[in-house]
Amino acid sequence: MIRKAVRDDIEMLIDMYNLATQRLLEKGIHQWDYPWQRKQLAELLPEFIVFEKESRIIGAMVLTEKVQFNEHPFEETVLFLEKLVIHPDFQRINMSDHLFEYARKISRVNGQEIYFDCWAGNEKLINYYSKRAEQVAILSEEDYEVALFRL
């Protein structure tokens, strides 16, 4: 089941984000700061969408409205998908497809396009996302590049 997050989800979200971040760090990918803080996730709670299976949160994403991403302006307000995570026990079996489909439904209802980004140096992830979305730009950050996708 995919649903809006509630306050009772925060502990499971912290655990899942910390575990996923540890796995990324082990691979040399410094995508997120570690450890995740309760306050940080609580502030995002109204925008959090969780993927629950058998009373366990196995995935999550944040959907916010944006008019631009970094220096890339959008023609109109879009939904921006960020902090997409799948619990490491459920990775490599396309579970993020369920969250993408949920986001697509929201975009159809709202009449808004959906964008998301990822580190441009993660070729495996770029290939995965390219099968599900259109890559529209490579954007420079302070000391790295990100790929921007339209879902």
Observed structural traits:
151 residues; alpha+beta; Aminopeptidase; 4 helices; globular; GNAT_dom
Briefly say what this structure is.
The chain is α+β, with helices and mostly antiparallel strands and 151 residues long.
Descriptive report:
The protein is of the alpha+beta class and 151 residues long. The chain has one domain (2-115): Aminopeptidase. The chain is built from 4 helices and 7 strands, in the order E-H-H-E-E-E-H-E-H-E-E. The chain has helices at residues 10-26, 38-44, 96-110, 123-130; strands at 2-4, 48-53, 56-69, 72-86, 114-119, 134-140, 145-150. The longest helix is centred in the first third of the chain and has 17 residues, at 10-26. The relative contact order is 0.15.
Query: How many helices?
Result: 4
Biggest β-sheet description: 7 strands, mixed
Q: Which stretches are low in confidence, meaning pLDDT under 50 for 5 or more residues running?
A: none
| Shape summary | globular
| Rg over C-alpha atoms, rounded to the nearest angstrom | 15 Å
Number of strands: 7
SSE pattern: EHHEEEHEHEE
Strand content: 35-45%
How many domains, as an integer?
Answer: 1
The CATH superfamily appears as Gcn5-related N-acetyltransferase (GNAT)
Question: At the third CATH level, what is the topology name?
Answer: Aminopeptidase
Helicity, in percent? 25-40%
Strand arrangement across the biggest beta sheet: 1-2-3-4-5-7-6
CATH class: Alpha Beta
Distance between the termini: 21 Å
Helix-and-strand structural type:
alpha+beta
Instruction: Please tell me the CATH architecture by its name.
Output: 3-Layer(aba) Sandwich
Overall pLDDT confidence: 93
Organism: Enterococcus larvae
Pfam family, one: Acetyltransf_1
Protein name: GNAT family N-acetyltransferase
